[in-house]
């Protein structure tokens, strides 16, 4: 079966994103040239411009992919651990913070992403995380597990805390110690949302 134009474009995008993920992790965004990226997959600058506009556009696509994978992995880890809806929400936050030790996540999402793309709360991938957290809090509110609060405000504050904890881990010279402190404190702060006498069951 002949490859369609749309399929070819999708394949080209996938090649450039894969090459960028590798180069940005190893060299950093600023030190990676467009020629490095295109030569690695046998493409021209024109292909990069056509698919992403420029190198910054390619970074945005890479950040969206890696950050999305980071969030998906955190949710999957929480599901494997099981427990209550609250336990799963806390496990997701902990897994997100822990992911900051992954070299690809650290360099692309937590260091270069904010430096070159601006406020992470405006990224599509972060908006998807926000929506998922709001759904979890709505379920918890319906169960009477959390206090009556403005759901979006609570979700934004929880997600912001997890993101800033991950940024702290990524920038630290002692990421393991910082991760433990950040995770424990994140859970302590979040527990303020719980109705009295209810706590993590795991």
UniProtKB/TrEMBL annotation:
It comes from Altericroceibacterium endophyticum. Residues 33-52 bind DNA. Gene3D superfamilies: Tetracycline Repressor, domain 2 (1.10.357.10). InterPro entries: Homeodomain-like_sf (IPR009057), HTH-type_TetR-like_transc_reg (IPR050109), HTH_TetR (IPR001647), Rv0078-like_C (IPR049484). Residues 10-70 form the HTH tetR-type domain. GO terms for molecular function: DNA-binding transcription factor activity; transcription cis-regulatory region binding. Signal peptide: none annotated. It holds the Pfam family TetR_C_41. Keywords: DNA-binding. This is TetR family transcriptional regulator.
């Amino acid at each position: 079966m002949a490859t369609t134009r749309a399929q070819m474009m999708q394949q080209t995008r996938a090649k450039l994103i894969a090459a960028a993920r590798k180069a940005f992790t190893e060299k950093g965004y600023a030190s990676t040239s467009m020629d490095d990226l295109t030569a690695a997959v046998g493409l021209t600058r024109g292909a990069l411009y056509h698919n992403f506009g420029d190198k910054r556009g390619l970074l945005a696509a890479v950040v969206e992919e890696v950050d999305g994978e980071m969030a998906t992995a955190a949710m999957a880890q929480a599901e494997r651990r099981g427990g209550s809806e609250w336990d799963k929400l806390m496990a997701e936050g902990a897994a997100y913070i822990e992911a900051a030790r992954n070299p690809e996540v650290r360099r692309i999402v937590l260091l270069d992403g904010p430096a070159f793309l601006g406020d992470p709360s405006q990224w599509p991938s972060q908006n998807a995380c926000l929506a998922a957290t709001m759904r979890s809090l709505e379920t918890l509110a319906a169960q009477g597990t959390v206090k009556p609060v403005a759901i979006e405000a609570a979700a934004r504050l929880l997600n912001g805390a997890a993101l800033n904890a991950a940024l702290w881990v990524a920038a630290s010279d002692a990421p393991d110690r910082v991760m433990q402190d950040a995770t424990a404190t994140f859970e302590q702060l979040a527990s303020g949302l719980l109705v009295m006498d209810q706590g993590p069951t795991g």
